[in-house]
């Protein structure tokens, strides 16, 4: 067979050469080779298994049709059909242009097109089958590797069939039109282009066929005539774009559809006509007056469904054309846009803005003042996306019609108000995105990048290091993908043109004025302009870059003018009151603006006149004004000492006075100002430090706050000089005298939070004392004296004692909340310094984490904001992101949603940082978001609420916390991250808990959390079973190294529990009646889960693991009002009579802080603790029933959600298996006694010991916060 095939191939080649050399005039040769021609059409060749033989036979047959034209040597219609279907199949070989046989396939196509061989088929009854197969083959093989000749021959072949045939059948028309459908168009752009040219070439013949098709579908409603019936509107739009002549007969059919009784059908036609009217150079509206009229009537009669306006349905760019063709009256358009500009949906409001601006940019006369007013209103929209679109749109109109004067004076006057409006909008403190500030910050950053680029060009050889700077520039340009090439080209131009570099250096110079900047920009643009190229994208990008770095707003002259205006307000000669602003408000606002400018334009302030005005502000009684003035000096006064000695001599005593007796904010800025602008700062700071450190007096806390702020910042800014003196201040005063003593008694009002003005001076002083400790340590940045260990133990003790470090019960609950927040924030601040992060124990980390579950709403809110702010700047280690998993327990929907947004932002920033910094791959353990999983698992394993590894309710809570984090991490499966996270959880089960490696229960809890995590991952991702891209590295601080012979294949949750976790209804979860709730363990306020109808589900807002019923329950019960920020101090008080247990005196026992903190936290963390009084027994409170005093007010009809906050006495014990057990925490970690507090570094503290003895006491009353 092989020999036969080889022989056949050789014979075929000979035959091909023979037929190629023959022409139509050689009659003798025709007769001679007629038997061979008939033989080649035999079944042996047409169905030959060898593709090369088939190709050669097809070439021969094509030549035979050429030679014997116009008559074919084959008389049988069936044979002719077989031959042309055979040739059509061979044309599929055209697809591969790199094939060695491609030239023969091309010869076959060329021969068929030149001779128009397929026209022979017109004589056949079923020729349509052949043509359809041919058209489908040619459209399927065309691709971008084909040259123009291939496309030309395909067009010749197909157009000859259409033009010379009796008509085009629907099936053949479908084979052409299907390539115009968007889905097919996107798959094969070359097929779309081929169909487009074919339709243009055959428009005279095919137009009638197209009209018949649309008539069948649109008028007669026969959708079965074609599979493309459902795409008629897409086809009409594409055909109109190809050649409007193709639709001459279709327009009356669309007019008929506009009168349809089906509203959806009419709406679809309106959308289509809007697109046709809006096509480039379209004159459809003017040529079809009847359609115009019907279109207008139809549009006016619409009652658009789902509150969606025609703004959305007609699309932005097409609606603006409706203004131009005057299809719709201005009144109708205005009324629609007026309603939709206030639509609840952000996307619709956004589209209204885009529509109006697009129309205005085409022709300002199309947009009346009322429409522009809608855009002006949206500049104050609550959504940033809408505000941005409105402001950018107005700016574009102003630039086009005022700056460029493209439409004359009338148009410029019409939009002249935009400049003032935008400047007022840009600087409004009420808007959360102070756009002017961000604009100047962006400009300052971009100027620094360009300056670095110019510095690199001054070097003998410009290295590749400039690439990073280029990419920094790209991030600030529109469309970074395209801008990358432009910036590289600009860099090359800078390297070749020294004059261009000098112009650019002048432009970014700090002394460049606005007038000089304008000259520089024009000069640079002139150098780069190309007269032969009217549209120069490169020049446009360079202009955009220059506009962003040029000082077009602010220079020394502008600052001087602003200062003069402020001086008029100070002197009382300004017209502030006439403008409805008091002079004091004007001065404060002016200084705030100058303060912002001082960050971005510091050199523009350097003048004696400006600084004299600022000195005058420093002497004013308004604290805010003085504070802003000091900060401006700090930002701009680097040359005061050398250039303006008179200003220096006046400024120094004022700064000293503010640092000693000003407000805390003034003191901070004064210290930083001295450190920033004076060369002899050590002397200046010593003159402040020494008198303040000697005059500290804890008996007068009102006078302590400012000195503590100043001392803290001094020790942080100059640690070499003041770290040692501060050590004695810390030991003898801060700890012993201030923190370890309660000199005043707080107000027992039951509130968990009080406004700043109601906080006692003593507590404010203690908060500042905690901050001083942190600043002192941050200045030293080392732990050689073990001061950090002692400070961390002190902070942990404050969290353990719930803010009442002395446990004398003299401090109010709102003050305790302040101190808990200060302690948690302090630990988090120290963790930002690597040397201190290393010594923070897992127990201390867990105490810090539990602050996010505090009973006080404001504590949770502020702590979460601080946590997010530090994480988003990559200041905190990755393990602190695991704290957000605990937010799943927050009863307030707003707080859970905020936590989820924080997670999304943090994960996005970390992933982006890894992509942009190749060196980051070496630090993946601290940057890769997926590595938060081990920290989260360890943290949840030590959750005080997690006491029984087999308790389904507790496991449900774990699942919610895990899913709260995993849901965000598993949004994308980047680099097979799902398998990587699963591998981490599996690897943890092969280790032990480093915190307590020898405790079976602790390890069992750890493995149980791992199993719950694996359960969640497996249920939510089918990709997690793939191989992990790399072997995870587990943090040794939390997990031991895997043992060689250790194998842990046990399932710690049963199959029944697994099913229950994934499919069962969420357990009813109690939430805070007033946003607040008590702790379950020392240092943490848990959210008590109670049963019965009074409780609701408290799970993650975004969790998809729960059933719909569970989600409904959650929404009904746990969605606390968004105004709940102030709920802590608005709760009514209910008096309930309870009978507390008997008490006995407390015995103090000295304990080492390490043992106290670590041991107490890790021992039976989950046991509920509801009493905090020194020496009192832990009393378990029953969650389902409370006995009220008969004299108390009746319970409110609305069910109270969650357990109330603790008070001095607790009542109604719980009858469960832990009732008679002693407090598992052993000793309460608390205050350092006065005898030993003087030596903070010694690391010893004294705490009252909990006595496990029954106690008796007289009945007492307790206050419980209830929900209104």
From TrEMBL:
Region (Disordered): 1082-1268
Protein name listed in UniProt: PDS5 cohesin associated factor A
Cross-referenced InterPro entries: ARM-like (IPR011989), ARM-type_fold (IPR016024), Pds5 (IPR039776)
Annotated source species: Chelonoidis abingdonii
Subcellular location: Nucleus
Keywords recorded for this protein, A-Z: Cell cycle, Cell division, Mitosis, Nucleus, Repeat
Gene Ontology annotations for the cellular component aspect, listed alphabetically: chromatin; nucleus
GO process terms (BP): cell division; DNA repair; mitotic sister chromatid cohesion
